[in-house]
Amino acid sequence: MNLGISKKYLALAFVAARACFFQARKQSGIESIQALEATRTILLFDPEHLTAANHRKRHLLHLFSSHPSSTFQTALRRDLLVITSILTSPLHRQSKSPTLWHHRYWLLTTYASDFPSEPKEISVSSPPSHIPLVCADIDAVCKAGERHPKNYYAWQYARRLISFFTEGAYACCEPKSTASANASNVEKGYADLMGTCVAMVLSWSLHHPADISGWAFLGWFLRCSSKDITLPSPSRAQSTVSTLAVVKCVGDYAVRLEQAKESLWVFLRTVLADGTVGEGGTEEIIGQLKDAGRKSDHGSGDCMILKERVRRTVAWVEKNSIRGNWGDTSHET
């Protein structure tokens, strides 16, 4: 199981932890540390054990209502670490657990709403500081996507998370008296967040071209973001590029490596047809794809596969685009 423990002994540990959990909860209630610790083994073996997940929620709510803020903050971060370790483990079912992804979302949204200013990383009054928190979650999603390909539960969680931070948290930033003063800071934080996450997901998708879930998320992300995205570079300097440049990067990658993965071409045709890159951008990329198709006329078998991919992509965009027609594709490719 790549955990250093066999499934047989993990199952035995689960049975023991389950018995311990119910006994400790019966004796000490929601405050039982023994019951809380037992839930880790329970969820590692059975990620859909709703009773164990709910116990962890109730324990956190209890700490929030009856303990100092620092105690709650420590417990919350520890809980997030436990959930992350299970979701990114090499176990097959765990990385695709709807119960655990929902629990993680609950943790972060509760964290943001109950502590809008104390935990600096998600304070909307200083947006750039929350970027590491969101990026850490996108990184966890990418790792879970590697553990379980086409992990739609993980990528759907990422959509909900990004929507929360860009719509929910930003919508209720500051009192009206300070809203105007923070407007530019919020806008910068939004651009930095979008750019950093786009760079992470783009890199992941290019390394996993057959994973439709990652490409679908990237397409959704580009539609949600502005036309200009601030992308980080290895030198830690930042450069502003357009959504069009991101899509062109994918197109160049597909043509240069003669990619035949259907998922990548589905991404390209979708963002070209739905207006993500704008009318001019679509025409430009379509022209480049046609040129690539013509150059592959007398190539090898892989070149002929690329030509067919280009032909089908251009025809699909022509048929389904919100703009309309780019000419007769049957003769140009």
Automatic annotation (TrEMBL):
Superkingdom of the source species: Eukaryota
Gene3D superfamilies reported in the protein's UniProt record: Protein prenylyltransferase (1.25.40.120)
Lineage: Eukaryota, Fungi, Dikarya, Ascomycota, Pezizomycotina
Alphabetized UniProt keyword annotations: Prenyltransferase, Repeat, Transferase
Protein's name in the database: Protein prenylyltransferase
Entry-linked InterPro entries: Prenyl_trans_a (IPR002088)
Family recorded in the similarity comment: Belongs to the protein prenyltransferase subunit alpha family.
Any one GO molecular-function label of the UniProt entry: protein prenyltransferase activity
One CC-aspect GO term: cytoplasm
